[in-house]
Write a structure and sequence with these properties.
This is TetR family transcriptional regulator. By secondary structure, the chain is an all-alpha fold. The chain has 10 helices and no strands.
């Protein structure tokens, strides 16, 4: 009787790739579940089903629900920080750099409603998890430094006011997009217009740019920023 061929060992590189893919699937499933149900309503069973893995595998990689939620939050912030870094603001003229940051922030919120949902849920919990995650604050430090340098460059050219606080500036940029996206449904009913319509979104994005530049510039900004939503 012929012997069965011995099973071949899985190469370490393949195992690492499979593990990375599994962890990525679990993170994506967790993100969707936490965004849809909030932390309290999210269930490990549902996350495992979304990721097409068993619970044992989920616990193996992330430990428990709390740890997975922390990982989801960290990845969410890393993603937006990576997008901001890719803008290469230091390589652009000050006015152009600010406009690019405002448009990126608005579009990131618009295109990733799960991010808005995660932040809203964490705020409803009074930052229960983020307050014990110093790595989140660490992700913001380079952005604040970059904004401070950008403001200084603009001031040296006589374009920007010198009394701008970079933290307040970023909070304002984020707020202009965050409120619109998070409240779009109710605002559409109140004002009897579809604020998700493409022309309304483009108008809002331009308005955000205009408001930020009017705050920064020593002279009024042009009435209509040239860049449009693509």
């Amino acid at each position: 009787m012929a012997r069965a061929a011995p099973a071949q060992a899985v190469p370490p590189r393949t195992r690492r790739r499979d593990a990375d893919a599994t962890k990525s699937d679990i993170l994506a499933a967790g993100r969707a579940e936490f965004a849809d149900k909030g932390f309290g309503g999210a269930r490990i069973d549902a996350i495992a089903t979304r990721a097409n893995v068993n619970k044992r595998m989920l616990y193996h990689y992330f430990g428990d629900k709390d740890a997975l939620y922390r990982a989801v939050l960290t990845e969410a912030y890393r993603e937006i920080r990576a997008g901001e870094k890719a803008l290469s603001l230091d390589c652009s003229e000050p006015v152009e750099a600010v406009e690019r940051l405002v448009r990126f922030t608005f579009r990131h919120f618009l295109e990733n409603p799960w991010f808005i949902a995660l932040l809203t849920n964490e705020n409803l919990m009074r930052a229960r998890y983020i307050k014990s995650m110093p790595e989140i604050s660490g992700l913001h430090s380079p952005l604040v430094d970059q904004l401070r340098t950008l403001i200084e460059r603009g001031a040296e050219k006589g374009l920007f006011r010198r009394d701008i606080d970079p933290v307040q500036l970023y909070i304002s940029i984020a707020a202009l997009g965050y409120f619109y996206v998070s409240n779009c449904a109710t605002l559409s009913v109140i004002f009897q217009t579809d604020l998700r319509a493409r022309d309304r979104i483009a108008t809002r994005e331009d308005h955000c740019v205009q408001m930020v530049l009017d705050h920064l510039l020593t002279r009024p900004a042009p009435k209509e920023p040239t860049a449009k939503l693509s």
